[in-house]
Structures are given as structure tokens and as C-alpha cells.
Amino acid sequence: MNEDAEAFLRRAIALAAEARRAGDPPFGSLLVGPDGAVLAEERNTSIADDDITAHPELKLARWAARRLDAETAAATTMYTSCQPCPMCTGAIARSGLGRVVFALSGEQLDALKPGAGWPVVPQDGPALYDEASAAVAGYY
Ligand SMILES: [Zn+2]
């Protein structure tokens, strides 16, 4: 990892510390555009906002999808204090952002937070294929 990448990761870690000082979970992220300029920064505000989705990575993915053209998004890198969770990973993929660089891995976070990890959500399906597929057919 080069010095610039480490500096951006240190900024993400500083944003995580800011979140913690504010009483929120300790996570921070930023977007760096194709020219190396910081485009946007966020920190976790899930407690302050009473919003389980207020992760910095998700907020930045939304920002990127609204504000960046596809070419710029693809050339933009998200630097984040921790590897994005599955919710944020999905949003990042949909936003078109080209790359994520993280400090702590999800595994390393779990080791710091015993008992954590992603619960398995019971799901049933598929079902009612003819009816459900009719709603989607021809849309794409
Ligand atoms: Zn997340």
C-alpha cells in the first residue's frame, strides 16, 4: 500500500474516532476521486440518527450514485476504517464505485467484538414464479 493510500486510511480512522467521540459506532470513510482529491467524507451516525443503515459506506455510496457520473464513480476509491458490511457492499456495488480500500477486515473487527458477526436471516422461497416473474418480465 502506498503512502497516499495509508494517509487516506488514517483519515478514515480519524473519522471513526470522531464518530466514537460523538457516541456513535466507530467507523469512518471517504471517497477519493480520479485526481486524488477527497470528494466526500462520512462517519457512522446510526445512534445519532436512530437509523440502523447510517453506516458511512452506505451514505457515501448514496452520495456517489446521486452526484458522480458513471465514469467518475468507476475511477473513485472508497477508503474506510473497516471492511464494508454486507449491506454496504451491496450499495457500493450498485453505486458503481470502482474500488474499496479498508483498514480493519471484518474478521479483525469480529475479533475485537466477541459475539459479533452477521446473523443468518431465515428466508423462504422461491415461490409463485409465474405471478412474481410477470411483475419483472420485460422491465430490464
Ligand atoms: Zn455497513
How would you describe this protein?
Helices cover 44% and strands 16% of the residues. The protein has one domain (3-119): Cytidine Deaminase, domain 2, CATH 3.40.140. With 140 residues, it is α+β, with helices and mostly antiparallel strands. It starts with a helix and ends with a helix. Strand 1 and strand 2 (38-43) form a beta hairpin. It has six helices and four strands, in the order αββααβαβαα. Helix 2 (56-67) runs parallel beside helix 4 (86-95). The protein has helices at 3-21, 56-67, 70-74, 86-95, 106-112, 129-136; strands at residues 28-32, 38-43, 77-82, 99-104. Strands 2-1-3-4 form a four-stranded mixed beta sheet, with helices on both faces. Zinc ion binds at residues 55, 57-58, 84-85, 87-88. This is tRNA-specific adenosine deaminase. It comes from Phytohabitans suffuscus. GO terms for molecular function: catalytic activity. Residues 3-120 form the CMP/dCMP-type deaminase domain.
Rounded to an integer in angstroms, the radius of gyration calculated over CA atoms is: 17 Å
Could you describe the largest sheet, including whether it forms a barrel? 4 strands, mixed
End-to-end Cα distance: 40 Å
Q: For this structure, what is the CATH homologous superfamily? A: Cytidine Deaminase, domain 2
Structural class by SSE content: alpha+beta
CATH class: Alpha Beta
**What letter string, H or E per element, gives the SSE order?**
HEEHHEHEHH
User: Which ligands does the model contain, each kind named once?
Assistant: zinc ion
